[in-house]
Amino acid sequence: MDVPKVARVFKGTFVHAKSVSEAGVELNPSGAIGVFDNGRIAFVGNLLDIESLRSKYRFTSAVEVDLGSRFLIPGFVDTHNHAPQYQYSGTGTDLPLLEWLEKYTFPVEAKYSDIDFARNVYDKSIRRVMRNGTTTCCYFATIHLDASKLLADLCARHGLRAYVGKVSMDRNSPAFYVEPSAAAAIEAAEAFVRYVRDELCSPLVTPVVTPRFVPTCSSELMRGLGEIAATYNVPIQSHVAENKAELAWVHSLHPDCSSYTQVYDAHGLLSERCVMAHGCHLEPAELDLLRERGAGIAHCPVSNFNLKSGIFDTQRALRSGVKLGLGTDVSGGHSPSVLEVVRQAVVASNVLHMHDAAYTPANYKLMFALATLGGAQVLGLERQVGSFEPGKAFDALIVDPLTPDSPFDVFDGNSLEDIFQKFVLLGDDRNVAHVFVNGAQVAGSCLGQPL
């Protein structure tokens, strides 16, 4: 067995979250992070110890990268994104959820029976999220098996760490966009899982069981999907309590269940590998149930605002002990950038404070923690990504606050923390100079240029 060698050592400032909290965000102005040639982090140390690190890990200055005015952060984890909806992102936010699905989403998603159409959009979606600093993305595809396989293939080809789900839906859907039966939907979902696991075999891509949401999935389908997830030990993703009209619809369909969340639980779809998007209207008992099952929530504030769905209470969810990350929810969310989600998550928390002065709003540091380590926890990847720790994969961004076309300016007297905050609240893909997944450069405004 080959012993890994240190391939790169990054010297300078790095910022990461050691815990999902404001206080857990660490800014180290004189760090040293070593990366093995297998893409794993070798060490996280300080420049003062560089000589002892050279001796211990047997590397020379030839592999050292001086970050200068740039800084390292972990790659962003997008816990909820609809890849097919990227085709119309930035449009069609004039309707609430259920009407929005009927007018915009279902007609567009039906087009993914055309594999060339799918390839064009999926390729662009992946490139765009990576340029914006996402290194792990949890994707919904469509009901089409071949196009869903293609999305998984493209994620692997581009080097994006991804959870990919073929959508399942067998009721309450338009005739042009629905699976013919629960049995057919279950068969297709299992075929997708087996394809990603046994044929694609990429260490970066994980198949996800994906019931769209309760209204479009019969009990037979939901139970079957739960069995697939248990049999193959794969994650589950869906939506919960996003919109009040949706909530009422679910209660009418399942009056025997005490809540929306309990419907999923009754069908074997809540587990520690489950990601539920939105949750704007969750009751305390539902948060307790999610915590007990170990499930996580993808907070999607951009979409929640655009579709007028509601305001998710970040602080209440964290107090309840539920795992929490951030999701772009393209295209309910207009932007593929997790930075935009961070900003609107702060706004959502401020709005709650405006309505209740006793409410403590969350700030940008906490939302940065959710965008990185929090998202990793939601996806069950906290031992692999989300922060800088020895043994984790080097999924990271080099951020350049002084790039010539930067959307913000840096002035004398701005501290390193000021500059980091400016990037979080003002920066964009122009500042994302290099994107690494498992140690490999895969994207960035300076891709192909020397480090």
Summarize the model shown.
37% of the residues lie in helices and 22% in strands.
Indicate the topology.
Blueprint: E1 6-17, E2 25-36, E3 41-46, H1 50-57, E4 64-74, E5 76-82, H2 97-109, H3 115-131, E6 134-140, H4 145-158, E7 161-165, E8 167-168, H5 182-200, E9 205-207, E10 210-211, H6 219-232, E11 236-240, H7 244-253, H8 260-266, E12 274-278, H9 284-293, E13 296-299, H10 301-306, H11 314-320, E14 323-326, H12 338-355, H13 364-378, E15 396-399, H14 416-426, E16 432-437, E17 440-443
Parallel strand pairs: 1-4, 5-6, 6-7, 7-9, 8-10, 11-12, 12-13, 13-14
Antiparallel strand pairs: 1-2, 2-3, 4-15, 15-16, 16-17
Strand content: 15-25%
Low-pLDDT runs of 5+ residues are none
Could you give the count of β-strands?
17
SS content category = alpha/beta
Strand order of the largest sheet: 3-2-1-4-15-16-17
What is the averaged pLDDT score? 98
- Indicate the radius of gyration in whole angstroms: 22 Å
Estimate percent helicity.
Answer: 25-40%
Termini gap: 30 Å
Shape: globular
Largest β-sheet summary: 7 strands, mixed
Number of helices: 14
Descriptive report:
- This protein has 451 residues and is α/β, with parallel strands linked by helices.
- The protein contains 14 helices and 17 strands.
- The chain has a seven-stranded mixed beta sheet with strand order 3-2-1-4-15-16-17.
- A hairpin with a 4-residue loop joins strand 2 and strand 3.
- Helix 3 (115-131) packs parallel to helix 4 and helix 12 (338-355) packs across helix 13 (364-378).
- The mean pLDDT is 98.
